[in-house]
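Why do we bother with a discrete structure alphabet at all? Because it lets us treat a fold like text: something you can write down, compare, and reason about line by line. To make this less abstract, here is a complete entry for Nicotianamine synthase. Read it the way you would read a sentence in a foreign language you are learning: slowly, and without expecting to understand everything at once.
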Amino acid sequence: MVCQEEALVEKICDLYEQISSLESLKPSKDVDMLFTQLVHTCIPPSPIDVTKLCKRVQEIRSKLIRLCGEAEGHLESHFSTILASFQNPLQNFNIFPYYSNYLKLGQLEFNILKQHYTHEPKKIAFVGSGPLPLTSIVLASNHLLKTVFYNFDIDPSANSKALALLPCDSDLSKRLFFHTTNIMDVTNALRDFDVVFLAALVGMDKEEKLRVIDHLAKYMSPGALLMLRSAHGARAFLYPVVDPCDLRGFEVLSVFHPTDEVINSVVIARKYPLPTHPSLLDHQQGLGNIILVPNKCSDIETFNPLNIHGNMIEELAFDEQL
């Protein structure tokens, strides 16, 4: 097993060297080939724990996640521009190479949401929606037919491209809104949302991710749900990992680790209904966890919200009272 992990890490590091030497990460034959190899290398289930790797590999992983994020941004921007040239962009999403993954991920996240939310949410915020907001579009089109989606992205060109995809759909154009802003500048408005989705690449390293999560913990409405995307095993070379214990201010309800071509793990958590003054969270790192946190994890058991074999769920147990 050790030899297999060493071979896996060696192959990933070799692909990193090739990717980092590219002149551009915009879609091209070489870019597509290398990232396809990387994804296929990281997808098979692996017991590898990236937190235990040596410092050199940890640094390569951090750089690789940023390269993946940059390449993903270029890919989405490229296809968003192409789709906008169609008379009806929404009917041509199948030209995007990962569209089927988004359909499966949307179904997965909807099934998870249904387990913890008894009725259809009125308002959902999606943080980091990008130029091709497929999650919002898939959920609004296929699953949450009355919900209003507010998409937040820091890049004005991303929102401009996203808006260009909707004019032909009278329903979605009334239920999908786009705001150009840094989510760290959004405060009281976050209390309006029943559910907040946090994109995998918002917060490219642990410190950035924690700052965003702590900000959401301050301002989200008590009882509201937070859905995050994480990564497990070798997939953690592609996306940042969110540890359940990092979700200060939230009760972690469950963590799903798909083992098919859906790459991202899904974490769902509920904002604690206890009144927590924002200033307490500001000093939380210095004072330790002063609000409820998970006290133990049960064994991982086989579970599949998509009725496809091979997904795992971790159910976490909590003390109900302080």
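What the structure line is telling us, in plain words: The CA atoms of residues 27 and 75 lie 6 Å apart. The beta strands are 123-127, 148-153, 176-180, 195-198, 225-230, 250-257, 265-271, 296-297, 301-302, 312-317.
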